[in-house]
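Shift notes (night). Ran G5 domain-containing protein while the centrifuge was going.
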Amino acid sequence: MKLYLKLGAMVAVLIILLTVWVPNIIVDRALAKGDESTIGGISVKGLEDGDIENALHEAINTWQDAPVSVEGANITISLDPKLFVFDVESSMVEYHSLTDKSWFAFWEQGQAVHIPLHVVVDSQVKKQLEATGVWEVEATLNAIITQISNLKSHTITATVADTHVIEAERLALSIEKIPTNAIGVDKLTNIINESIILPDVPFSFLTAIEEKYDEANIEAINFVASMLYNAALQTDYEISERHSQEEKTNYLQQGLDARINRTLDKDLQFVNRSDKSNKLKLTVEGDSLKVELLAQKKEKDISVRVSKDKIIQPRVIIRYSKDLPLGSEEVLQKGQEGVRVEVYRSILENGNTSEELVSRDYYPPVNKIIVRSSRQPVVSEKSSENSDSSDPDLQMDLDGDGLPDTQSENKESGNNAPETNTSKDPNDPETVYGYYDKGGNFIQTSP
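Came back to this:
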């Protein structure tokens, strides 16, 4: 009997010891394991549950201060970090399920665990990925979740699908000879080539060439921008920003050019308002640049019309110089007529045609500058007295205009205006002298 009592007492003492000792072992094992474990890339070394949650929330808030950038196939989209909802509570449950052990398994060696945060992704993210038209949506979404659930970099590389599917048909084509003074066209071409024009996402020329802006001169920049603008006009893209060069170029009609100025924030921007992505293709062929806009299917026929509203004749400016020989003159600057042009775009869809005014530009005339000799012939006093209209040599009509030659010369010197357009065709633009003020009003002047 006494033996049973002793055994019972020993069992009771053992139970008490296990109750006190085993939990301590479990805690020690868990802490040893927690020293190496992470949740969402955040170390949980020596932290209790409350401290772990606070550390995770703080890290998440810091991470959400910057947008998520997804890049691929010359496309970059920005995702609002608030579209990703982090479930800290579920993450803690998973952590405990992997680290907590029963009291009777206290002798097992603890293992470090590294688990990602649980993330709920808003459906808007998938829609933005699908809108690119050239990304593998599910693969890209998985890459985003993997990176975000571990609070890693905000820049993610998309999985690019085969983009040849959107090269089936050509929407626009522009081919022009590269100006001889344009330097860096090849560098601009390489960075823009195969850019994807996403639906409802503005394309900015300055943004597209930002890395190569300083590697090309302004002639090359304006030339490539003009080529892109000319191609965009052949589609139904919305032209949201474009600036005229205000002078005639040697590669495109007036009204089809574009001017870029980073200092003055003058950009070329257009928007693809369709629901399909398009592709830009730029290639240098010999001494020419070819720009194409490609799509999976061409649904509209579009034509561009340039109309000259007014032709403004240049004025002739006469200057005098004693450095020229007597009776001679030189053309210091050739004159060039000014013009106001209007650009119209016609869209044929489902048998219906609509026309819209895209732009109205004014290209001022370049005045003709002539330098004449200011030297006068040396005339004796006697010759001067006899030099009147009675001299038969002065009455000769050698040029056959019906007037004495001396009067013809005086008439010519008093009229500095160039020949004007005498066409009577009612479709021809009006030929006038004048200029446009800042309000777009035409101010007519006399020759």
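DSSP finds ten helices and 24 strands in the chain. Residues 41 and 226 are 49 Å apart (CA to CA).
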